[in-house]
Amino acid sequence: MSPSALPLAAAPANPHFGRLGGREAIVRLVDAFYRAMDTRPDARAIRAMHEPDLSHTQAVLVDYLCEWTGGPKVYGARRGAPMLRRRHQPFDIDASARDAWMACMRQALAEGVSDGVLRAELEAAFWKIADFIRNTETHGERRPHPGRPMEVHPHATPLTHASAVSSPPHQPESLS
Questions:
Q1: d(CA 133, CA 86)
Q2: Which of 157, 15, 37, 172 is nearest to 105 (CA)?
Q3: Spatial distance between the Cα atoms of 46 and 103, rounded to a whole number of angstroms
Q4: If we measure between CA atoms, which residue out of 121, 100, 127, 114 comes closest to residue 36?
Q5: N or C: which end of the chain has fewer CB within 10 A?
Q6: Can you tell me whether residue 33 is helix, strand or coil?
Q7: If one looks up domain 16-152 in CATH, what number appears?
Q8: What is this structure's pTM?
Q9: In this predicted model, what pLDDT tens digit does every residue of 99-133 receive, in sequence order?
């Protein structure tokens, strides 16, 4: 059989959606995340980057996380390619902002994900993208774009998210 005639292996399905408990569990995770952002003193700066009413932002994040974790592909169909770093360019995302975001997400994961292995997998994936979107260095200078996550870390799987429609549909890469 010639190499071109060999069947291609399908990408493994992302099992995280089911392991988390589906859409309802993701809604609870997102609620806990934004509740942490609203109450943590270390998150004041990142909370200020959001609208006062978080309902739209929460709905977008729920759709994105459902798709990102292997659930229904609603986000990409509605919003197109995530392009998270580009969507966050108007904001100064430095190491402090990244760390505050991660503190909120860790708190939400601790509150809503009882499976320690799954929680660690998700935290590692969230860390990769939180660090990837940093666009500002500690002293305020702009941080150059590091390249696409798969170019920077070829064996890492990026997580991306967007809150506005501006490009054709895209299927985000899986967590695994």
A1: 8
A2: 37
A3: 11
A4: 100
A5: N
A6: helix
A7: 1.10.490.10
A8: 0.73
A9: 999 999 999 999 999 999 999 999 999 999 898 88
